[in-house]
Write a structure and sequence with these properties.
Low-confidence stretches: 1-8, 389-399, 487-496, 593-625
Helix content: 25-40%
GO biological process, one term: proteolysis
Distance between the termini: 79 Å
Domain Tail specific protease: 107-304, 403-583
Number of domains: 4
Shape: elongated
Bound molecules: 2-acetamido-2-deoxy-beta-D-glucopyranose
InterPro entries: ClpP/crotonase-like_dom_sf (IPR029045), Tail-specific_protease (IPR005151)
Keywords: Signal
CATH superfamily of the largest domain: 2-enoyl-CoA Hydratase, Chain A, domain 1
Number of helices: 18
Structural class: alpha/beta
CATH topology of the largest domain: 2-enoyl-CoA Hydratase, Chain A, domain 1
Number of strands: 27
Signal peptide: 1-22
Length: 625
């Protein structure tokens, strides 16, 4: 509750008061006295009584004769003044207080019956436990039923591999039962301070701690625990959920809980027929400094209560894959990651990373990616969730690889081939297609792409809009540009036509050119089979391998080769620096003969001259082996 200063409290109360008779001032003063003796936030009441007395003395207050209206007005006043919605004033001429029967005083048979009806245990598939508790019994009752509960509930639960604790219907219970449950789901090593409960009428503070030992087997803190809550979950059950959530021991699934109170009492105001309802005790979690009271426990996975069980089950399936994913990623990093000196730290991280609250594969991927990048400081080492990617780019080819007609369409739409003035060939493709039937792709490309270009004088390959794709077709296209005699061992040797390195090959790049597109530009440059012109590329080039983690949509991309750039430095995937840097939109104009432009290659001097009388002239070192 936010603290209110006395003057504000005063104003709020006075706005609503009416005291022409002597009854109402007395009532208000009595009410203030009750609050002073019972309200669990006494610090918010400082100065209240004096303020009220002063207001009464000055006598400038309105008249309200209807008692129900008076009660409503007082409620608004006191709630507003103390900022606590639980405080209410009611007019109830026929109110008879019910004295709640304390459970421990019931005969044992009745206790057993009651507990049987409020606890249900099932063992689901995969040894997932399902425990529904509708009433958190207090320590006294638990002590009476000790061995019965242990044999029938807790020892059986302890044998399960993971647990769904259903508190959606838990609407009754006692706080004194909370420490046992928290202890059951913790390790014994060190005791945990769970809660501090202040009781105003007795002016006492009680601390709840986990128990040093419990009879019977504990569940411990390693196995997955999911707690289900609903908007009806209230009281001690909220304390259980709140504590286990903030101890990072349980994932809360469902709805925000009711936001109950430790203890609320309805107190008669003097001898009147007015009553004031007052929270007389409060709970503060030493973990958060706050409480589940009033605001409730917010779930980590929000679903409506009736879908919570299904959600919890699917969550447990996701969580059960986590150890395997960690193992696979560790193995892949150990085996492939090029920066071997960083591997030990990465493996260490994977062992110790806190994945307690992971609730989806995507979530897991994001977390691991963040952690790995932080430790490796390598933007190329990536863990990602692939579901979104699967829908784009690569997938479209899988189903059509045997259908020549569709394949032809694909090649036709992917590769744009033109012959520009001065018999300059122009080839643009915006992605590198993926295909398992590479031979067919090769054949089609020979017919549809290379055949029209084979007699051109120069070839422009436009990668300005190329954002990557699959590197399988990279080798295929690159091999066409190389002299058959010079094919690099890195690539599969194709028995395909070749443009060769005798004619000029110009690769256009832009800021958008990415991933495999960049790799292509880089290889053209470093294998000396062409000249790169345009803007520095986006810098997502990775000489990396992508591994999908089996049975998941998670993939890890591991750089397994380090590039040395032209200056002999490690290349961490910064953009490819073109041989000639020009704005991407100018790059093609320079080459395709608009204006008065020329490309001349002076083999003797190893200089390539690209120029225009409208724009600047670019003079490049040209290294044709
Ligand atoms: C409550 O108890 C504390 C000491 O535990 C004491 O200092 C304080 O005055 C008491 N408050 C009231 C209102 O009795």
């Amino acid at each position: 509750m936010a603290q209110r200063s006395p003057p504000l409290l005063l104003t709020l109360l006075l706005c609503t008061l009416s005291v022409n008779s002597s009854f109402q001032p007395a009532l208000v003063l009595e009410m203030a006295q009750i609050l002073l003796e019972n309200y669990c936030f006494p610090e918010n009441l400082v100065g209240m009584q004096e303020a009220i007395q002063q207001a009464i003395n000055s006598g400038e207050i309105l008249q309200i004769s209807d008692k129900k209206t008076l009660a409503a007005v007082l409620t608004v006043g006191v709630q507003g003044a103390l900022n606590d919605p639980r405080l209410t004033v009611s007019y109830e001429p026929n109110f008879t207080p019910v004295v709640p029967q304390m459970l421990p005083s019931l005969p044992i048979e009745q206790l057993i019956w009651l507990v049987r009806n409020s606890v249900k245990l099932d063992i689901l598939n995969n040894n997932v436990g399902y425990l529904r508790i509708d009433r958190i019994i207090g320590e006294e009752t638990a002590a009476k039923l000790g061995s019965l509960l242990r044999d029938n509930i807790w020892d059986k639960v302890a044998q399960t591999s993971s647990l769904i604790l259903d508190l959606r219907y838990s609407t009754a219970g006692e706080l004194s039962g909370v420490p046992f449950i928290i202890s059951y789901f913790s390790d014994s090593e060190s005791l945990i301070h769970i809660d501090t409960v202040y009781d105003r009428p007795s002016n006492t503070t009680r601390e709840l701690w986990t128990m040093p030992s419990i009879t019977g087997e504990k569940y411990g803190k390693k196995k997955d625990l999911i707690i289900l809550t609903s908007k009806r979950t209230v009281g001690a059950a909220e304390a259980v959920a709140y504590t286990l959530k903030n101890l990072k021991r349980a994932i809360i699934v469902g709805e925000r809980s009711a936001g109950g109170s430790v203890k609320v009492q309805k107190i008669r105001i003097a001898q009147s027929e007015f009553y004031i309802t007052v929270p007389v005790a409060r709970s503060v979690s030493p973990i958060t400094g706050q409480s589940w009271e009033v605001n409730g426990v917010s779930p980590m996975v929000n679903v409506i209560a009736k879908e919570a069980v299904a959600k919890a089950k699917s969550l447990l399936v996701v969580r059960s894959t986590i150890p395997k994913v960690i193992q696979s990623i560790s193995d892949i990093i150990k085996r492939y990651y090029a920066f071997t000196d960083r591997i030990p730290a990465l493996l260490q991280l994977l062992q110790s990373t806190d994945l307690f609250s992971v609730v989806s594969e995507e979530d897991l991927a994001v977390r691991l990616n963040h952690d790995l990048q932080t430790v490796s400081e390598d933007p190329r080492l990536i863990v990602k969730y692939m579901q979104d990617d699967a829908a784009t780019g690569e997938e479209d080819l899988y189903n059509i690889q045997d259908d020549m007609k569709l394949l032809r369409e694909l090649v036709d739409t992917t590769f744009k081939v033109e012959i520009l003035p001065h018999n300059t060939g122009y080839l643009r493709f915006d992605k590198f297609v993926k295909l398992s039937a590479e031979a067919k792709l090769e054949e089609l490309m020979a017919n549809m792409v290379w055949e029209p270009l084979k007699d051109t004088n120069n070839l422009i390959i436009d990668l300005r809009y190329n954002t990557g794709g699959s590197s399988t077709s990279l080798a295929l296209i690159l091999s066409y540009l190389q002299d058959p005699s010079q094919k690099h061992h890195f690539f599969t040797i194709y028995d395909s036509p070749s443009y060769g390195s005798k004619r000029g090959v110009y690769v256009l790049t832009s800021y958008y050119t990415a991933s495999v597109g960049e790799e292509f530009a880089y290889l053209v440059q470093s294998l000396h089979c062409g000249t790169v012109i345009g803007e520095i590329t986006s810098g997502t080039l990775m000489h990396s391998k992508t591994f999908q983690i089996e049975g998941t949509d998670i993939a890890i991309i591991v750089p397994f080769i380090n590039f040395l750039d032209n200056n002999g430095e490690f290349w961490l995937g910064g953009g490819v620096v073109p041989d000639a840097i020009v704005l991407a939109e100018d790059a093609r104009h320079i080459l395709n003969g608009y204006g008065t432009m020329y490309i001349s290659s002076q083999k003797e001097t190893n200089l390539l001259l690209i120029g225009s009388n409208l724009k600047s002239t670019y003079l490049l070192s040209y290294q044709n082996q």
